[in-house]
Amino acid sequence: MGKLRILLALGVLCCGCGRVVPVDGPVSVVPAPVSVTPAEGVFRLSASTRVVVRSSDGRMPFVTDALNELLRPVFGEELTCLSPAPVQDGAVNFIETDSISSDGYSLTITPDRVEVRSGGAEGAFYAVQTLRQLMPAAAFGKGRAKAVELPAVAIADRPEMGYRGMMLDVARHFFTVEEVKRVLDLLAMHKMNVFHWHLTDDQGWRIEIGKYPELTRIGSVRTRTLIGKDPGGEYDETCRYDETPHGGFYTQDEIRDVVEYAARRFITVIPEIEFPGHAVAALASYPWLSCTGEQYEVRQTWDIDDRVFCIGRDSTFRFIEGVLEEVVALFPSTYIHIGGDECPTDRWEQCPRCRERMRAEGLTRPRQLQGYATTRIERFLRSHGRRLIGWDEILDSGVSRTAVVMSWRGTEGGIRAARQGNEVVMAPTTHCYFDYYQTADTAGEPLAWGGCLPLEKVYALSPCERLDSVQRASVLGVQANLWTEYIPDFAQAQYMLLPRLGALAEVGWSPGRKDYAEFLPRLKRLTRFYDACGYVYAKHSLAD
Ligand code: TNX
Predict the structure, then answer these.
(1) Which of 61, 136, 371, 461 is the most exposed place for a label (fewest CB within 10 A)?
(2) Domains and their CATH numbers in the chain
(3) For 57, how many CA atoms within 13 A lie in the half-sphere containing its CB?
(4) Could you identify the atom of ligand 1 that is nearest to the CA of residue 450?
(5) Protein residue with its CA nearest to atom 10 in ligand 1
(6) Mean pLDDT in runs of 10 for the chain (544 residues)?
């Protein structure tokens, strides 16, 4: 009896090993490829399938690692990789060709073989992301598979926009390195290629700076956090606080680890150091950075603060340059984000040093001090071979043609910037603010910043509207922003991101596609892969 039980149990386990998982429906990929031509038959992928690499791109191991990472949970082992080797039947063949752009690829599946042709490793990486979605979702279920079927198909693909980004605010709430990596995995799955890391704000400084240790010793911790909404708009005694210190920062080793993790997924990390506003955590760490030199606490509530960096003192510039020197050493990104948003000028108006700076520079309005500061920092970044990117307020006080403008107050700023020849990233609140509610009916939804941004509206964004063809070329791409005032943990961050990230990914990859009814079933299928990876998402927003 006992023996029989063991045999039965073994039988069940072996059934798992012997599973051949069939194709689960027509080809369905998000973001939509340029062209998909279905064909007859299937290719059987198994642990004995070889991976052949014919490419001189040194980053091809990132691609084969990504393929193995995808297939390891399915087969319980990795595929053997041959490089260089002749193209083979029965194999997944990666072939470099100069007739395809560096980020484009073609993927041809026949019953005999899989062939990926690409301009380099980046395109090949996107082909692997497409392969994930060609696999039957059940392959990622419980138990190992013996083989999975891939549908015969010919896909030609390349992104239309070169910048497909997402910003994560880790200042209002801190997210661990492991969580940040899970976000990077998500970006990779959606073929997105920029991670904008909002590292400093009034409520926390999250990046270790060797020259200025107080930034993390003092600036990375706030003693308490506002709970819920401020009922009176005054942050008075009617507000409730959690009374628990909230802190966290990344060491420089951790930052290097994240940057490398991203690079292996063809994602550039753009760091943001807020200047001259959103600065209270920095001023709390070093009081000589403010106009008055007063000792402040790291801010515990949200909104805009008028305590900003003093533009009158040269020591402020020595400070920010010292910080940026370490930042450029850590981040290979060409673009360095210096914030620039929501900077009140009240303190500068009261400050003798700022008034003196205005006189010396021949400035007539305090706002121009921001332009002075931005230009000075831009010059510094350029001397390090980098380019400044900032929120669209940088346009209001004069900015050079080489600065990049991130348009958040609608697309207006971006349109203005593109018309005057600046490069632009479109991230308007109307379509890209993932801290807004996903439905009009907010009952049962977690508390959000406000506003309503349903999936369909994200999908409707036309980033190049009202621009002629020359101006359109200045639009680098689009970005989703996740501000985290009301996002205290990673589960909620995923919930706010997904599935809206799928819609924004398609806006960046194939902005011409605007048939929402055709998009929705494709996105629904993508959520089966969210399930397979254990991501949390807003299921209700997928209802027809
Ligand atoms: C505006 S967008 C901000 C952030 C807030 C966000 C809330 C931008 C450049 N600044 O500081 O977190 O609104 O939606």
Answers:
(1) 61
(2) 18-157 (3.30.379.10), 163-511 (3.20.20.80)
(3) 26
(4) 14
(5) 341
(6) 50 59 97 98 98 97 98 96 96 98 98 98 98 97 93 98 98 98 98 99 98 98 95 90 97 99 98 98 98 98 97 98 98 98 98 98 97 97 98 93 97 96 98 97 94 98 95 97 98 98 98 95 97 96 88
